[in-house]
């Protein structure tokens, strides 16, 4: 299957700072990327959908000003957690598709800890 | 709005037992259904992908079926091993927003 690389795999930051997570499709062009969040012992919850060159569509309850998503190219999407707080500590996973109706491939996830 | 439910939430079985994990979804308008494995603190490992036009997929000791009309899928694991212990997630890609929606998962523990 196709490869999606997510970086960093883990990060610890101080409360109030911002953290950027990158998601790259290494061997295909990703027209659509998705960002998920997973709290301990819970399932993956979709945060937002981003299409290359356009604004992300956020799920209900997700603050778009706090979780900034940029999908400027067909191989890269970034999620920036702004003014992070301890309650933002979670496992964040991205996925990418080459076309809207095809299989989505997942990154390995980023564990964010805000102290 | 698509909802995915997995039963049971947790399962503990002795090694060697065959087992079935269940997944149901509320909207049959899907492109595909995928089963994943997730180990504690780790990312997702894709196990099987079933396109909406397919009825089942097999990989080694794993077999997944799909009944789109009734909104159900099952993951069959034959001759379970302690190494199969993990959380198994079912996810559907729906045609509405092309999103992949996950179930809550089944936590499996296989005792040696």
Q: What topology does this entry show?
A:
The complex is a heterodimer of chains A (115) and B (112).
Chain A: E1 4-7, E2 10-13, E3 19-25, E4 32-38, E5 45-51, E6 57-58, E7 67-73, E8 76-81, E9 90-97, E10 105-106, E11 110-114
Parallel strand pairs in A: 2-11
Antiparallel strand pairs in A: 1-3, 3-8, 4-5, 4-9, 5-6, 7-8, 9-10, 9-11
Chain B: E1 4-7, E2 10-14, E3 19-25, E4 30-38, E5 44-51, E6 56-59, E7 62-67, E8 72-77, E9 86-94, E10 100-102, E11 106-111
Largest interface: A-B, 26 and 23 residues
Following the backbone from N to C, one meets helices and strands of chain B in this order, namely EEEEEEEEEEE
Helix content of chain A: under 10%
Largest beta-sheet characterization of chain B? 6 strands, mixed
Structure summary, number of beta strands of chain A: 11
User: Beta-strand percentage of chain B?
Assistant: over 45%
Structural class of chain A: mainly beta
Structure keywords:
heterodimer, A: 115 residues, mainly beta, 7-stranded mixed beta sheet, 4-stranded antiparallel beta sheet, 0% helix, 51% strand, B: 112 residues, 6-stranded mixed beta sheet, 5-stranded antiparallel beta sheet, 11 strands
């Amino acid at each position: 299957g196709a490869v999606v690389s997510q970086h960093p795999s883990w990060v610890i930051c101080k409360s109030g700072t911002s953290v950027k997570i990158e998601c790259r499709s290494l061997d295909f062009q990703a027209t659509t990327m998705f960002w998920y969040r997973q709290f301990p012992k819970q399932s993956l919850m979709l945060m937002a959908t981003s299409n290359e060159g356009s604004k992300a569509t956020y799920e209900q309850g997700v603050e778009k000003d706090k979780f900034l998503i940029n999908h400027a190219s067909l191989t890269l999407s970034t999620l920036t957690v702004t003014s992070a707080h301890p309650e933002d500590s979670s496992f964040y996973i991205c996925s990418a598709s080459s076309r809207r109706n095809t299989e989505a491939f997942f990154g390995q996830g980023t564990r964010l800890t805000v102290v | 709005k698509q909802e995915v439910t997995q039963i049971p939430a947790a399962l503990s079985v002795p090694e060697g037992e065959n087992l079935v994990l269940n997944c149901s979804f509320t909207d049959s308008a899907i492109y595909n259904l995928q089963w994943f494995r997730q180990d504690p603190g780790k990312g997702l490992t894709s196990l099987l992908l079933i396109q909406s036009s397919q009825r089942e997929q097999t990989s080694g000791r794993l077999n997944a079926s799909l009944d789109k009309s009734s909104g159900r899928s099952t993951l069959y694991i034959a001759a379970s091993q302690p190494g199969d212990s993990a959380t198994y997630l079912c996810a559907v890609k729906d045609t509405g927003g092309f999103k992949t929606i996950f179930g809550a998962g089944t936590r499996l523990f296989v005792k040696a």
